[in-house]
Structures are given as C-alpha cells and as structure tokens.
Amino acid sequence: MDNLKTKQNINGLSGEITIPPDKSISHRAIIFGALTKGKIEIKNLSLGEDCLNTLKIFEKLGVKHQFISKRDLILDSTNGFFSPKESLYCGNSGTTTRLLSGFFAWQDFNIELKGDESLSKRPMKRVIEPLSQMGAKIESNNNKLPLKIEGNKLKGITYYSQIASAQVKSCLLLAGLGANGKTKIYEPNLSRNHSEIMLEYLEAQISTGKDENGFYSEIIPSKLTPKNLEIVGDISSAAFFMVAAAIVPNSSIVIKNVGINPTRTGIIDVFEQAQINFELLNQRTICNEKVADIKVTYSENIKPFEISGDIIPRLIDEIPILAVLATQANGKSIIKDAQDLRNKESDRIKTVTESFKELGIKIEEFEDGFEITGKNKINSNATLKTHLDHRLAMSYYVLSLINKKEMTIDGFNCINSSFPEFIEMMNLLQ
Ligand code: S3P
Question: What is the distance, to the nearest Å, from the Cα of residue 200 to the centroid of all Cα atoms in its chain?
C-alpha cells in the first residue's frame, strides 16, 4: 500500500474505537523498565516500528522480552546490559535516538546509532551539546546521524535549553541517572513530562518546578524500583479521529482510553476555541497518567483559531491535523512560534503548505507556522507526497474524507512507524 488511493463519498463516521498506546510513554516504559534491572510486565505497548526499534536495541544489549499477549510483554533486564556486536538502528524515530544518547553516554561500552533517510537529516546538536558538557564522548556526521558514543563518566550539570523539547529533557534525565551529582534541566515552556511521571513512579529521586529561569526537572542518580507499567492511549493518534469526526458531516464517535496528560492536551484547548462539539467521559488515572474517553460530534460551525507561545509544545505533533481542521473553519486560523516543525520527520511547515496548495487550499507559509483560510471545498485528484512523515500521511487521509474526488497519497506505508492500525480503525468507523 505504498500509494494509497483514497475513498470518496464517506457518509459520516460513527461507533467506538480504543486508541492504541502512547508512543512517547511506550519508549519510556522500555528504557526506564530496562534500567530497573528487574523483571517487569509492560501492558499495552505501542507496536509501531519506532517503539519496536527501541525494544530491538535493548534486545541487542541482552535485555530479554517475551510477549504474553498482543501488546503485553515481560521485560527482563536482570542480567544488565552487554556491549552490542553491531551498530544500532533507530529507524525513523527521533525519540529512540535522542533519549538513548543520554543512556549510552555513561554505559561501559561503545555504540553506533543509525537511522533511515528522514532521521539521518534531523539535527542532533540539541543533545550532543549538553551531553558533551556532561563529559560524554560523541562523534557525529556534522551533528547528524550516525552517532558514535563512547561510554564515559559523566558529571551532573545545570542546562538551560533554548527549546521546549521533551526529547532533550529526557535525554539529559537519562544521562543524569548515571552522572556524578545532580542534573538540572531548564526549558522555556513545559514540554511533555512523561519521563518525570514515570521516573517518579519508579521511585527515582526527581523533582520538578518553575522559577525565574523557567520550568525545571532535576534528577539525582537513583536506583529505579522494578514495577509493572501500563500505557494509556495516544492523544496524538486520537487527534486524527477527533478532527475527522469534527469535519465529516453526520459523524459522532467515542475514542476510548486516551491519555490526557495536561502537557499533551493543547488539541483539547483548540477544540474549545474552535467550539467543536466534544466531551471528556470516564476520567481516571493509570500509572499516574490521566486518561479519558473522548466523544466528538460533527461541528457545522467551526470557529477559526490562533495558537502560539506556550501551547505549542502541548500540541506540537498535532499541528498537521490541526491544519486540516483549520481548512474547514469559518475564517482565518493562525499557527505561530512553531519553527521546530521544520525539524520533524519532514519540514512540516513546508510540506503541509505545498500539499495544501496542491489541493487548492488557501495557505500562507511563515518561518514559524502558517495562516489558513477556512471553508475550503476540496475537489481534487492530486497526488500528495508524505516525505516518510507518518503524521502527514494520516492528516492527508483525513482531508481525503471531505474530498469530492479520489486522490493519491504517495508513500502511505510510512504510517507503520507510528500507527499501523490506522486504516483498520478508520474502516471500523465508516
Ligand atoms: C517526543 C517529543 C516531541 C515530539 C515527538 C515525541 C517525546 O519532540 O514531537 O514526537 O517522546 O519525547 P521534541 O521533544 O523534539 O519536541
């Protein structure tokens, strides 16, 4: 299914789906779970290629795993970690690369990290620089992959990150777990805090807060307690269905088990701003992460919205699908302060602008975002390119649901890196 021909004349989405597990939390469950050096059960792990690549890397270090059902596994790191015999492949996953750099920086062996074409173009200076300040020995290809990391003794530092990035923050927390003394990371806005929540759950000595320098997370090297972990559903996957139900006439769906950690719910704030019909049902907590079922109903009169500043890290992955929502709003929507979108699986500002223009949608590109004029009727046979970017592929699929003509999404199978069940779930609702 490399080239997907989309369907036409969808008559509303209806029914219930359970959204697959959160990818950010899944990576962290494997990494922190392995660091407990115990035997634990992880329930509801993401089966996207990105998280499986993290799992395979630990397998090459001697950490055993056994699936006991489709998404539940036993992870056994009681024998510790061994030097891998070959280079380690991170595929398309920035999270695998950046988080594991902090872990490998203080192991007793040397490794090499590699990735696919898209990952090999992405910037790694954001982790190489602070890790080097801690004493890490890293060689790179001009601050890009491949990375050669020689395990070394690290010292704790205080680092003021210029960007709000959970990958940078988590990389340094992982480095801090093996460093001498305390490691404190400041960020200008609060990025997702799944690492902090899981580390606290596993009884690490970690604290968080805010002072005149910004938001901070601080860690002291600690032993993690082996405990079973369960992963909530991924709001960034739910986002495609939330927007689809909001824009496709006659839709009403319930998306079950969606993680609603406040550092991830920028899309819910946008839904409020856009006056979309939705409800959060059955709110509860799993392994200290908040979760709810989300009901979304077709919304005829979508208000235009503006997003900038501190909300950006809370919805950074949802911007392509929120751009789709903006195409159906009643006026101009503006997205600003999102320049890091240019460093994702593709340059999402450029690629979204190009594709929307192909479809005849009114969009103006800025250095740090775009402006989209809404109420577009889409009637196009275009072929859109995904550039190996899973979130573009799924966002274009949602747009196709309101396209009067058949279009083609080129390179659609890149969705396997994050959400292999996407089409199956869409079909369930049609
Ligand atoms: C992630 C953090 C975000 C996000 C990515 C996953 C994580 O990246 O875009 O999909 O799991 O830490 P940045 O931290 O670079 O913003």
Answer: 21
**Which of 64, 60, 122 is closest to 89 using CA atoms?**
60
Whether 215 contacts 189, CB under 8 Å: yes
3-state secondary structure string across 286-305: ECCEEEEEEEEECCCCCCCC
Atom 15 of ligand 1: nearest residue by CA position: 165
**List 317, 347, 389, 410, catalytic entry:** 317
Note the pLDDT tens digit of each residue in 34-61: 999 999 999 999 999 999 999 999 999 9
Q: Quick check: CB of 191 below 6 Å from ligand 1? A: yes
Q: In this structure, are strands 205-211 and 39-43 parallel, antiparallel, or unpaired? A: unpaired
Query: What is the C-alpha to C-alpha distance for residues 285 and 269, in angstroms, rounded to an integer?
Result: 20
Q: How does residue 10 score in pLDDT terms, banded at 50, 70 and 90?
A: confident
CB 173 within 8 A of CB 102: yes
pLDDT 10s digits, 271-312: 999 999 999 999 999 999 999 999 999 999 999 999 999 999
Beta strands in 225-328 (DSSP E): 229-230, 252-259, 277-286, 289-297, 306-307
Q: Which domains does the chain have, with CATH numbers?
A: 3-21+232-429 (3.65.10.10), 23-221 (3.65.10.10)
For this structure, is 317 an active site residue?
Answer: yes
Q: Are 131 and 102 in contact (CB under 8 A)?
A: yes
